[in-house]
Request: fold
Amino acid sequence: METSIPASEAPITDHPKMTVIGTGYLGATHAVCMAVLGFDVLGVDVDEKKIALLAAGTVPFFEPGLDEQLRAALASGRLRFTTDFDEAARFGDVHFICVGTPQAEGSHAADMRYVDSAFTEIASRIDRKALLVGKSTVPIGTASRLTELVQSVSPIGSELELAWNPEFLREGFAVKDTMHPDRLVFGVASSWAQRQLEAAFRPILDEDTPSVVTDLATAELVKVAANSFLATKISYINAMAEVCEATGADVNLLATALSYDSRIGGRFLKPGLGFGGGCLPKDIRAFVYRAEELGVGQAVGFLKEVDKINQRRRVRTVDLIRELADGDLAGKKIAALGAAFKPNSDDVRDAPALDVARFLYLEGATVMVYDPEANENAHRAYPDLNYVDSMREALEGADVVALLTEWDEFRIADPAEIGELVAHRRIVDGRHALDADAYRADGWVYRALGRPTDPQTVALHEDARDDAEAPLHR
Ligand code: UDX
Reply:
């Protein structure tokens, strides 16, 4: 798809040298994957510790498969790391900016300090034709503001061009999503920028990956619109779970039935404790904030409701756990299985699991948290909870078990075996990840949000479920 953009005669670099500024989750993955795809890449960060770890072949966070790719990229000689912006400006033909845009303190707006600083630092040193490419998730209008900023600080002025290339990678699938994305979006202000970006993504485009060329504002909007849609889908099914709770209906059966409609589909329709992480929650809030600034707040007002539905899931999960703990959490021992915002990640940013554990603690429960990868980050965020090194230790003597992040280790646990460890066989399945029948057959009281509790209804629904199992996946 084409957009009308000014033509330009400036030559492009066929095999551009790249810098990746900001080596957090997004940047480190992008730098590694681009080097694996055959480009010369320089990763840049202000954090010396992070740069030293990456240069030594260690990924500073948990991401399946990334360690191996990092080591392969370093061994190829195509990937290096530095904290020196002068070196970066000399090296790069294309500079990708991948720094974070966290939620600003005390506000729903995005904190743009890191983005502004990264663009200024690199632009003020660039003295030959180059392309700056923003990948961070930003409020609409940022790229146009940054274009003015970088051209005013760069020695080459308006010769320095800016493009926007949003990133859609999911934690846990970062390598796959970067090397084989569903689509590429190139937000550009000139045909030179478009051709230069196409050269930078040639190996991915050659796989027939769809690409959409847009203006800068549309490229910024694609990212927040996609994340808002996904968040809305999750909150939609969780809102249906609330209706199920009031009517005795089963949200799992409902989701399965909906998923067979190809217009709806089963992805991101998994009910439970809701969404968390470093993207979905803060992106929908920043979107609402920016839309209100632009005078179109009404258009996305529904996202406030999406956020509220999502927050209620955490409170309702605590209600269920309290119900199973005979109505009072004070002094009860609760096994909290999971802390990360989703499995295969050690990220605890806005993690529903950790919020639930914290609420339980505030009501006087003794909470034993175990996550296969996220204990350390969780401990840093909430040092008051008890963290243990194994599922077994978390379960020992528990009055109620709460499954909060659906790691495989928890899904495949044998209900009879773990039943021997707990004080009472009571479990809240916060992620609809367990086989309710198997648990009930082994004498567990099994509860999940939006699923009936009455034994007769349960029996009826379980029979129907056996006939209608469709995969609901992410
Ligand atoms: C998300 C987007 O998917 C990705 O495209 C974007 O680039 C960054 O934000 P990520 O934050 O890694 O990726 O996680 P995602 O897999 O989207 O899950 C987000 C949250 O939603 C998790 O807490 C997950 O448990 C929850 N979720 C997901 C559900 O509750 N139900 C679902 O059906 C799917």
